[in-house]
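PT: before anyone asks, these are the final sequences, not the draft ones from last week. 1032 residues across everything. Please model them as a single complex and drop the result in this thread when it's through.
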Amino acid sequence: MIVPLISLILLCPLAAFAIFGLLGLANRRFPRQDYLSTVAMLVALVCSFLLLREVVPTPEPHTVNWISLGGVTFSMGFYLDSVTVIMLIVVTLVSSLVHIFSMGYMHGDPRYPRFFAYLSLFSFSMLFLVVSDNLLGIYIGWELVGLCSYLLIGFWFEKDSAANACKKAFLTTRVGDVGMFIGMMMLFTKFDTLALYGEGGIFAQAAAQLSTADMVWLSIAGVLIFCGAIGKSAQMPLHTWLPDAMEGPTPVSALIHAATMVAAGVYLTARMFPILTETSSLVIAYVGGITALVAATIAIVRFDIKRVLAYSTISQLGYMMLAIGAGSYVAGLFHLTTHAFFKALLFLGSGSVIHAFHAMHAHGHDDEHAHAHSQDSHQPSAISSQQESGTSPDTSLLTTESRQPTAIPEIPPDQDMRNMGGLRHKMPITFVTMLIATLSISGVPFIFSGFWSKDAILGGVLGRAMEWNSVHHYILFIMALSAAGITAFYMFRLIFMTFFGEPRNQEMHDMAHESPKSMTVPLLILAALSLPVVNILWFNETYVKPPPQPHLHAPQHAYVSPDSNTGGKGYTVSLFGVSEAAAAEENGGHDTHGAHGDDGHHGHGPAHMIAMVLSICVAGLGIFFSWLFYHRRTLSAESVATTFRPVYNLFWHKYYFDEFYDGVLVALTVWKARLFAQFDGSVVDGIVNGVGVVTRDILAAFVGLFDNHVVDGLVNRVAQVTWAVGGRIRRIQTGAIQTYLFVVLAGIVLLILIFRAL
Amino acid sequence: MTLQHYLVISAILFTLGIFAVLTRRNAISILMGIELILNSCNLNFAAFSRFMTPPEDISGQIIAIFGIVLAAAEAAVFLAIILAIYREFGSIRPDEVDTLKG
Amino acid sequence: MEFTLKNFIFYGFALMTVGSALLVVTVRNIVHAAFSLMVTLFGVAGLYVFLQADFLAATQVIVYVGGILVLILFGVMMTSGRLEMRIHIERGQLLLGGIVSLALLMLLLTVIANTPAWKNLTDDGTELPPTTERIGELILNGPFLLPFEVVSVLLLVALIGAALISRKEVRD
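LR: through. Structure below.
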């Protein structure tokens, strides 16, 4: 049943896209592309749920040979383990909801059918990536996902900003992809295969063959493959494309940020888990930790509701990377799923808010609704021009010297939180669902899924730190903890600015309204999924097990907690009766390669308790300060910003990453291009021109002389003779019939006379 | 009235027709000359038919009739061409219509 | 050669024919020339009568005088625009043409006079039966059927062609 079901999951969205594409070639359209795509996605969703029962503890890949090149055979196939099936469910579920949401949000867009076709292709690509059992298939899906994100981010390509954003996303992720490709090639040259699982797969071979001497090599390969994930999952320093990707339609943002594109990076890193070494793990963990902290701080000062969420996504992805890097495989993937739902909810909720504000722009000309989508962003209304250029409360004192147009893109008025406020009465469903998502992402305890996954990460990191007695992991834990607090702060800032307080822009506020059912129903479903129902999947010990990491060795000074094996199973036991510690234990039993204490899941007991308490405190602090700043207004954000002006500037300018790229990388490229242009202009052109001059002035001169005198002379002489002869002869040809007749008759008379005379 | 009477008349008509074709500078005059020539031919046919063949054989007359028909056809086409030329060049003098002349 | 009425009429017709033909080629006014031609054609028709070719004579009058001549007159009027159109004649051309024509005439007359087979063929004046019926037989039910049909088609083609050529060009 596995292969048919997976095939069906893949073929449904692909068929929806293919129908659009094939009919498009014939210049026709399927009348209801939206239904077609949505139904295809729902079928895939049902199949994904059916697959839940098919998972076996030690899955085998289902492969077929694809192409043979010079003795090497590339196979294509499916690999279905618990992680795969959970990813399938997440992707199809979020994608289905995004499809349904888009029916309302994108209604009236001139390219409405095309949008759904792209969504189908996007979903197909991601599903293909998820089920592939080999790096080649993953890479194909990986690039398809990149292509689709390009198409969808630039869906409103009439806007320059959207066109630039999609190019930026495509090129930035490509930087990482190069690294990934090199990493793949390193593995390929070593193992002669790109298959990951099974007898001859990379993991099996790596576990069997590699010695400690190969660890440097393997670390490099792992980090290089992780480069792909850095690009796709928008980790530092390749994160800059993701905020710009907000130029796409909001459902696309939801899909990219929640389920497909950025999740691909985390998923890839998780798939590579068995070959991660100590070094590469640490690199991944640090990249993730830094990303989590930096992105969170940037999010504090953003005013564009979608960009706050974008930086929040980057930050949360950092968490996942940190978790995987710190060995908390299950926690990372757990956070990926919970994040998928609440972040999709946040994006769709923000889309609902934006949609409500769109109504004002589209008012009176509903048929041009879609035009309003694409136009209002580059037609700054009176509101936006007044709001722009930093006249906001927070930045009014900082604008003069700090604002740079390249660094701070203009905020569309309908996405600007400074135009919002008090919307909770206008849009109750949106408000409640977004509040649930915010509570979830902020880590409010116990009844929200985000708390559990985030806590699992924090606990995992702290556990690893305590277990290994590793300074690195303590630092990482502090980073993650601060990021958690900041997350709570800026997420509640968003909620307070948007839904509480007095309306800041009365005109827009009056026009706002609750969104249609096709948009609110997905919100409600996602809100339900942000409660810890999905956790069931993750705390079933037979379901998700971290794969062994034979190449990860604890440092010599690792301190193994004496009570690690006995100290209970952590908080999860009390709630669900199972824990990932238990799963890890079972796993460790048959892991012969792992050194002592190689899986970081022992010793979670005290670590988790500490982490939980700390994270609750930090989240509470974040929410409390947010409340003080943005609701009670006891503290003034302006005064704080003024006091810590350099820090504020740093955040406001997003750590100057874009400036750095513009100023250094772009400038370097331009400088290099100029250099080459100069080289071209002087040396290459000089040679070419020199050859040209020689040819022209010397060779051509001789040939020219010969041509002019010999050849032309001959031709001209012939022509002259012909001309002269013709000039004489043509006198005879008067063209007068009578003359001809006269000559003829005279001739006849003469002839007869002659013959008679004879 | 011998055959030679008719032949002489025919010869004179023929010569006059030739003279007109040779000397006239007007397409219609040339057409008239041609008609004279055709008439002389027809007259010859009729005369030979009368004097050189048995009385019941009148093939010569029939040939003459065909000749008249041809003359009619020729005249019709000739005049159509003249009209077309006149419309194009504003003249029917053959020496003025010399577009094809090199 | 006795001088009978018949002879007189014959010579009258002959003179009329030759004389009017002379006018056709010499007269400067093209309209006059056309009318002279009409006289010539009548004369030839008369000569046909003398040859006992009654059908031919009738055809000559009907087709030539009634058809071709009217056509020529139309042509004259449509191209000249006025009735007295002078025919331009060059003297040199006239001289050369005259010489050649005269030479030709001399040649023809010599041939006529010196051909033995053509000598002494006199019209005995016997009445021959009317030719119309026999011509009809020969044309429609005899050896001339095919030429007749061919000529019919030729005439049709010529008429259609003439109409096509002479009509004003319609540019679409």
